[in-house]
Amino acid sequence: MPRTKFVCGNWKMHKTVAEAVQLVKELAAGLGDVAGKVQVAVAPPFTAVHAAAQAAAGSAIEVAGQDVHWEAQGAFTGEVSAAMLAEAGCRHGIVGHSERRQLFGETDEAVRKKVGALLAAGLAPIVCVGETLAEREAGRTLEVVDRQVRQGLAGLDAGALGRVTVAYEPVWAIGTGKTATSAQAQEVHAAIRKILREMGGSVADAIRIQYGGSVKPENAQELMSQPDVDGALVGGASLKAKDFLAIVKGALR
Ligand code: PEP
After folding, report:
1. How far is CA 114 from the centre of its chain?
2. To test ligand 1's pocket by mutation, which of 214, 219, 240, 244 has the most ligand atoms within 8 angstroms of CB?
3. Half-sphere exposure of residue 87, counting CA atoms within 13 Å on the CB side?
4. Is the pTM of this model over 0.85?
5. Of 214, 216, 206, which Cα lies nearest the Cα of 250?
6. Helices (H), the chain
7. pLDDT, tens digit (0-9, with 9 covering 90-100), for 133-143
8. How many CB atoms lie within 10 A of CB 134?
């Protein structure tokens, strides 16, 4: 069974409510016959999640949270639960993004707990993994990614694993304009699929592995034509409808 490509825009700390609604409307109007052939999601800031989901209703655009807390409720100032994301209209939640890991101290153990909370709330986790430049230069890429995948997804049975998307995002490629070559991406994606097979057996063949890191209209098609690259997690280029739509369309060619 071929895997349906999955492209998600990570808007990070960009877009007010009004801007988010406008962008979702432009995306929905521009999808054309790609709708239903490529899975498409956007991850607005929390403040715009509900409005974006309402603007996306009836279209093929799905909404993701950029982060989540693992507890259901409580004294966790600034945090948002998985049930809150689901009620606001999310279908997915991003966890383990390198900015969360580097700037906010997110650990593999926190990723594991967040994945569990998302699944329990009926949301699909997008679990980001990837090495820093120093780790790549030290030849530690596969070791780092192996640890992040095994620890972030520890304890999931095959059914739960099958609901996860993994996003391979080399940290040195995020927001830098430097993209991994398609061969570099394919090498790590194939390694991730091997780990997923060891963890969950044949369900690994159905799990989407997105590439992220300076994906643009010019390189999206080449990256997503690799056998184990099943879509993209897109930061900067997801903020303009024209660029994001071109990337989504690149998934089909
Ligand atoms: C990201 O933040 O997930 C990302 C891949 O960013 P960019 O596309 O801007 O490199």
Report:
1. 14
2. 214
3. 6
4. yes
5. 216
6. 17-30, 46-56, 82-88, 98-104, 108-120, 133-137, 141-152, 158-161, 182-200, 217-224, 241-250
7. 999 999 999 99
8. 10
